[in-house]
């Protein structure tokens, strides 16, 4: 089935979409105009080619809807980030189709590399579309860093697989025991150290990566091999923040002065690692899980987010299709991100009980 | 029937194996049979050909997580009745995989369940739990 964007927009209808946006969208008031702004974040679209001009309808719909809704934000976001895994198997038709949908965004768009975009041609075609795989930029007093954090050991990338297609398939299987842990790599670590050395410690820093930059569960690559080294580089900064994709679920954490928040996928949600009974995992204690998904509703527990930065910290608004919207805001008193509604144990509800 | 059996036993049919007697070798063979079917289930789990759109179960259920076999049979609110797990497997084949449903006793359906249960081994039975 091919997707028809016009049909979708007709179904969604501006009124209906606006009605689904949280009210806080409309009036954001900032204390310090200099560093306060907001941007949108869309991630993990996993555009999947069937054959010819056919793509998996389900995943197309998730991304089309995110683009349509993001375009309706008022006031307008300063920019949008796409957090990686635009494609499912890294092919040109998938990246082209995904890029075409994303090009509907009316805002400047930054892109982050995901493993599903990378392991067919090691990022060549993606780079033709989106440019550098790691870079930094400054926006209204905040230093943003984009990393390609889905690299891995050279031996795995260059020696192990007879074809590029097989390499891509092996990395695409989340639970594949033949996979390999995500890495930033020495070259990029050096670049990061050098980039950060030019930034004042009082400047807020936001790192955008595909993998978590913390170690949660290696079996599903909710993991970055050099997490400690990256964290060490971020530690001297007064307000360091990390936003990551890949996990297709709500996660947030605070390690020293580094606030971590994940973003949702537009394609499909993932179980929390603890629901795999045969392995130990380390979901941050702080995280209040998303409400369990209803399999009868194909968009449930997918979505996109908008983020307001204020004085160097961020409030993450999860705009979840068919699931309760969530806001994880930085609590300055307790110096950590917290869900503004469900954080205390006594406020949690049965659908947040995953097993 | 029972009487006859006792009678036959009593007569000392020592050359016929007693029905409840099995060796470690038997146990190993039966386990291997199960493992074989479970590994066929794993192959189907990651297969792009179980459905029709190239989507595989593993894309959304890594290690068969979030399939909760220990909770079946249970009331599925969207179906309005108590169902067995194979009905939910068929739901996911039909919808996210846009494929054709399997019969309850289809070897593929049994293999999928062997894999699901294997990944969930050790978890206590909780029939009916949502
Ligand atoms: Fe992803
Ligand atoms: Fe990913």
Question: What does this protein structure show overall?
Answer:
The complex is a heterodimer of chains A (355) and B (130). Chain A has a single domain, classed as Metallo-dependent phosphatases (Purple Acid Phosphatase, chain A, domain 2, 4-Layer Sandwich), CATH 3.60.21. Chain A contains 10 helices and 15 strands. Chain A has helices spanning 5-12, 14-20, 57-71, 92-102, 115-118, 124-130, 154-159, 164-172, 186-197, 227-234, and strands spanning 37-42, 49-51, 54-55, 80-82, 109-111, 135-139, 142-146, 205-209, 240-244, 252-255, 258-262, 302-310, 313-321, 326-331, 336-339. In chain A, the strands form 3 sheets. Chain A has a 7-stranded mixed β-sheet with strand order 5-4-1-12-13-14-15. The radius of gyration of chain A is 19 Å and the shape is globular. Chain A starts with a helix and ends in a 16-residue tail after the last strand. The relative contact order of chain A is 0.14. Chain B is mostly helical and 130 residues long. Chain B has a single domain (31-130), classed as Cytochrome c-like domain (Cytochrome Bc1 Complex, Chain D, domain 2, Orthogonal Bundle), CATH 1.10.760. A two-stranded antiparallel sheet of chain B has the order 1-2. In chain B, a hairpin with a 4-residue loop joins strand 1 and strand 2. In chain B, helix 2 packs across helix 5 (107-119). The longest helix of chain B is centred in the first third of the chain and has 22 residues, at 24-45. The N and C termini of chain B lie far apart (44 Å). The interface between A and B is medium-sized, with 29 and 24 residues. The complex binds fe (ii) ion (2 copies). Residues 85, 114-116, 210, 246 of chain A line the site of one fe (ii) ion.
């Amino acid at each position: 089935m091919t997707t028809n964007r016009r049909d979708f927009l007709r179904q969604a209808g501006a009124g209906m979409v606006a009605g689904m946006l949280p009210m806080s969208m409309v009036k954001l008031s900032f204390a310090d105009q200099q560093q306060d702004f907001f941007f949108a974040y869309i991630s993990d679209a996993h555009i999947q080619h069937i054959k010819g001009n056919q793509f998996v309808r389900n995943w197309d719909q998730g991304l089309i809807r995110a683009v349509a809704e993001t375009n309706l934000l008022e006031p307008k976001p300063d920019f949008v980030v796409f957090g990686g895994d635009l494609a499912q198997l890294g092919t040109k038709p998938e990246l082209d189709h995904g890029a075409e949908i994303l090009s509907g965004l009316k805002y400047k768009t930054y892109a982050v590399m995901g493993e599903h975009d990378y392991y067919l041609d090691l990022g060549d075609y993606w780079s033709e579309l989106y440019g550098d795989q790691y870079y930094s930029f400054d926006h209204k007093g905040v230093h943003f860093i984009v990393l390609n954090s889905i690299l891995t050991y050279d031996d795995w990338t260059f020696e192990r697989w007879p074809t590029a297609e097989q390499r891509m398939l092996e990395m695409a299987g989340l639970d594949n025991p033949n996979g390999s842990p995500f890495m930033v790599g020495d070259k990029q670590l050096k670049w990061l150290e050098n980039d950060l050395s030019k930034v004042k410690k009082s400047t807020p820093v936001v790192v955008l990566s595909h993998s978590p930059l913390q170690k949660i569960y290696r079996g599903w690559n909710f993991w970055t091999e050099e997490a400690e080294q990256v964290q060490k580089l971020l530690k001297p900064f007064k307000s360091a923040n990390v936003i990551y994709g890949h996990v297709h679920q709500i996660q947030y954490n605070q390690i020293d002065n580094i606030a971590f928040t994940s973003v949702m996928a537009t394609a499909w949600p993932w179980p929390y690692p603890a629901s795999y009974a045969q392995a130990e995992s380390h979901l941050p204690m702080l995280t209040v899980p998303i409400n369990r998904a209803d399999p009868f509703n194909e968009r449930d527990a997918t979505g996109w987010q908008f983020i307001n930065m204020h004085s160097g910290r961020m409030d993450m608004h999860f705009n979840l299709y068919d699931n309760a919207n969530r806001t994880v805001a930085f609590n300055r008193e307790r110096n950590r991100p917290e869900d503004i509604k469900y954080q205390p144990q006594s406020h949690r509800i049965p659908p947040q009980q995953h097993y | 029937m029972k009487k006859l059996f006792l009678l036959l036993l009593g007569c000392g049919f020592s050359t016929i194996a007693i029905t409840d007697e099995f060796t470690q070798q038997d146990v190993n063979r039966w386990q291997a049979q199960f493992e074989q079917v479970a590994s066929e289930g794993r192959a189907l789990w990651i297969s792009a050909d179980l459905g029709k759109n190239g989507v595989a179960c593993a894309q959304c259920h890594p290690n068969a997580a979030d399939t909760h076999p220990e909770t079946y049979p249970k009331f599925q609110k969207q179906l309005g009745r108590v169902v067995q797990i194979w009905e939910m497997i068929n739901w996911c084949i039909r919808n996210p995989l846009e494929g054709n449903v399997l019969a309850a006793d289809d070897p593929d359906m049994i293999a999928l369940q062997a894999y699901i249960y294997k990944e969930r081994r050790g978890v206590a039975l909780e029939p009916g739990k949502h």
